[in-house]
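Exercise 7. Given the encoded structure of a 491-residue chain, write a plausible sequence.
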């Protein structure tokens, strides 16, 4: 492991704040978090916001909110509430570290390992097109390599705009040992002289990332596979600046069910959307942990401390991971089933409120209702339809329900049903009592089949189909059942 001043593992998650946190980013954050916790190390949040066009403060807030929702709290980085930097390697926002990058750019220029480039975008585009036409790789052609540093500085002081390019001259293979992929070899000739600082003075991702990982004493860089080609550039920068190289692990690609790279085309890929669809953060975290890692015990459902205890880098899988919504739902359902009822109720409240449901505030009732309903839910959103018939709002009679009420025998059946519940001594019927009442309505009114079940169902939930009455009736108080029957009888 690379040495650092604390002698501990330091990992980081380094999002570019350009939108919500997506599944892939959440996995990188989770693995970085878990590995730091597993080893008693430190986990840093660094904000890679040098792309001033795409990075926004709102996106940063959204990412921070999603990370906190998942419980991936960082040891260092922007304070979750104020977003002010906390930690001894501050600032953690690259947009506030521009002087640092400038210093290293000057150093690399002075070493002759980089040069100023005055080519215009049009020049570069023309040369690129030409190279492609001639079947050459469209690398920078080296025009400005010959401008010596003093001449270049004079041009800059006269107001000319110059970018800083890394001088790519190596003729050896560049190699590193990836934690997940083993030895990775980049033969020479893969790169042209690449930009470190744009002509407007803004440093690019590869430059900032290398300097920050080095200065922030990061020991393990975990990130998505698509960054592999950046790692080549970063290794050259490490070498040029004489920084110690961290251990890299490039996490396997995540595919959708159609085996294409997971993207917006697949619908929900942001954690935020899953939150809105009623997924629990614990379930998302649990599921994402398994996208490229497996437990040595073959376990699939973990508490946070089990995950921390079992997570290690030797079980990261280089094969592509497939994001399977069905499995995610299953994991979510497992969490719903085992969550304490009172806690689950609190999580459901915003969904009930959002759907306009008014449910009893009695804690015992809530406990009983959750106990009866939780195995029918896979997401929190599922609870809305399950609980809708229990809402204390006025009975919502649908058209089919109204038709049933027109049947000759319906009035008689509902009147009898009301009479029976009124005569019952208890506030809530048990399933057995409900069955007994239905049987006596059947006998006393001499009706059966749909002429029995449909009107009672309409008198209870306002429609002749749907919800399991045996589950619902024990949750509806006698008063509510009588009021609902009365409403039907009035029609
Ligand atoms: N800002 C980069 C991204 O969001 C980070 C890549 C890295 O971890 O080095 O993809």
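Solution.
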């Amino acid at each position: 492991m690379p040495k650092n001043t604390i002698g501990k593992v330091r990992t980081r998650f380094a999002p570019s704040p350009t939108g919500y946190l997506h599944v892939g980013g959440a996995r990188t954050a989770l693995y970085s978090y878990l590995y730091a916790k597993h080893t008693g190390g430190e986990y840093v949040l660094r904000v890679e916001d040098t792309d001033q066009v795409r990075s926004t403060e709102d996106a940063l807030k959204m990412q921070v909110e999603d990370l906190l929702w998942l419980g991936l709290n960082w040891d260092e980085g922007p304070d979750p509430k104020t977003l002010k930097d906390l930690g001894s390697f501050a600032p953690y926002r690259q947009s506030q570290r521009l002087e640092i990058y400038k210093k290293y750019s000057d150093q690399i220029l002075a070493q002759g390992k980089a040069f100023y480039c005055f080519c215009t975008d049009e020049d570069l585009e023309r040369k690129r097109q030409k190279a492609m036409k001639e079947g050459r790789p469209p690398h920078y052609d080296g025009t400005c390599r010959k401008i010596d540093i003093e001449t270049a500085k004079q041009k800059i002081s006269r107001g000319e705009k110059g970018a800083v390019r890394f001088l790519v001259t190596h003729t050896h293979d560049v190699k590193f040992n990836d934690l997940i992929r083993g030895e990775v070899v980049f033969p020479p000739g893969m790169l042209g002289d690449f930009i470190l600082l744009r002509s407007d003075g803004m440093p690019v991702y590869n430059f900032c990332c290398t300097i920050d990982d080095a200065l922030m004493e990061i020991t393990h860089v975990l990130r998505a596979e698509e960054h592999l080609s950046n790692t080549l550039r970063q290794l050259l920068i490490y070498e040029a600046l004489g920084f110690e190289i961290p251990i890299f692990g490039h996490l396997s690609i995540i595919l959708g069910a159609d085996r294409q790279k997971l993207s917006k085309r697949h619908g929900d890929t942001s954690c935020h959307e899953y939150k809105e669809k009623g997924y629990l953060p614990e379930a998302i975290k649990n599921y994402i942990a398994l996208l490229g890692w497996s437990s040595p015990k073959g376990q699939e459902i973990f508490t946070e401390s089990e995950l921390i205890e079992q997570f290690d880098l030797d079980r990261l899988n280089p094969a592509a991971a497939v994001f399977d919504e069905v499995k995610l739902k299953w994991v979510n359902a497992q969490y719903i089933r085992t969550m304490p009822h009172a806690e689950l109720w609190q999580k459901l409240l915003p969904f009930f409120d959002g759907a306009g449901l008014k449910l009893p505030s009695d804690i015992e009732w809530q406990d009983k209702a959750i106990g009866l309903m939780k195995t029918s839910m896979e997401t929190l959103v599922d609870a809305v339809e399950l609980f809708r018939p229990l809402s204390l709002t006025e009975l919502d009679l649908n058209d089919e329900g109204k038709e049933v009420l027109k049947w000759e025998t319906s009035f008689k059946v509902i009147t009898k049903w009301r009479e029976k519940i009124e005569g019952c001594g208890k506030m809530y019927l048990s399933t057995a009592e409900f069955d007994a009442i239905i049987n006596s309505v059947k006998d006393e009114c001499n009706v059966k089949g749909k002429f029995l079940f449909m009107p009672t169902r309409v008198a209870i939930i306002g429609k002749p189909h749907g919800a399991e009455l045996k589950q619902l009736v024990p949750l509806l108080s006698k008063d509510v059942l009588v009021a609902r029957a009365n409403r039907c009888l009035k029609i």
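Remark. The longest strand covers residues 174-178. Students should compare their own answers with the one above.
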